[in-house]
Amino acid sequence: MTGASSGIGRAVALRLAAEGAQVLVHGRDAARTEEVARLTGGSPLVADLAVPGSHGDLADRALAVDGRIDILVAGAGAGWSGPFAGMGDGELRRLVELDLVAPLALTRAVLPGMVARNCGQIVLVGSVAGRTGVAGEAVYAAAKAGLDAFAESLRLELVGSGVSVSVVVPGAVRTSFFDNRGRPYGRRFPRPVDPERVAAVTLDVVRHGRPEAWVPRWLAVAPSVRALAPRAFRRLSARFGEQVRSGGVEGPP
């Protein structure tokens, strides 16, 4: 489980351990990662996945623990909020590396073993931002959209292999994500859900190999509205975008 030292990742790690899984707990913060490892009886693996090349080392250390990985839940990620033109090159590369490159690289590392055993699960934590776009979060949304396209393509490639590929699509979640991205969550609706709720859905995805799950479920209507009424959807998005640029409320979920 990547990103397991806090938020959604921590909640997922605890649920997996409660189900009897041997959890490999990845995080960037050593103290918090070791704490979750103690709580789950798992193995702590500290690494900063925003650093290019860190994925290979993490995969090697993870495989060395037990020689195999049956389930990869890629939950590590970060956001950044603000006008795209004002985003620094370093921040742009950090987000793409962490939110898109790392899940792809880790999947590539563990996939051969899963295919050889004819059994395995890849679970990617996406975002509604990747399905609809969000003003002020162009790079984050692009990275999450890339995860969606990757999952769909890989799922087709792995038909009959015994390996499933799933995407969990949460909306706003009550974690430190919004504070860390530089803009707190300021909307009254939809209210952020607890990370434990996302974890419960993720566990259900693992149990049943479902290709996709939204949290909350009703958010799945957003891309449908965009597809069926694109002009209205874009007018609404543009209105929220103006509020974001002027320092007002959040854009659409």
Please render the helix and strand layout as text.
Layout (H helix, E strand, L loop, with lengths): L6 H12 L5 E4 L2 H11 L2 E4 L7 H13 L4 E4 L14 H29 L2 E6 L3 H4 L5 H20 L5 E8 L6 H5 L13 H14 L3 E4 L5 H8 L1 H16 L8
Parallel strand pairs: 1-2, 3-4, 4-5, 5-6
Helix pairs in contact: 1-8, 3-4, 4-6, 9-10
Report on this structure.
The chain has helices at 7-18, 30-40, 54-66, 89-117, 129-132, 138-157, 177-181, 195-208, 221-228, 230-245, and strands at residues 24-27, 43-46, 71-74, 120-125, 163-170, 212-215. The protein has 253 residues and is α/β, with parallel strands linked by helices. It has a single domain (7-245), classed as Rossmann fold. The longest helix is centred in the middle third of the chain and has 29 residues, at 89-117. The protein is globular. The two termini are 25 Å apart.
In short:
With 253 residues, the protein is an alpha/beta fold.
The biggest beta sheet, please? 4 strands, parallel
What characteristic shape results from the CA principal axes?
globular
Poorly predicted regions? 240-253
Number of strands: 6
Which CATH-level-2 architecture? 3-Layer(aba) Sandwich
Oligomer state of the chains in this structure: single chain
Say which CATH homologous superfamily is assigned: NAD(P)-binding Rossmann-like Domain
Query: Whole-number average pLDDT?
Result: 89
In whole angstroms, how far apart are the ends?
A: 25 Å
Question: Which descriptors would you attach to this protein?
Answer:
single chain, 253 residues, alpha/beta, Rossmann fold, four-stranded parallel beta sheet, two-stranded parallel sheet, 6 strands, 52% helix, 12% strand, globular, disordered C terminus
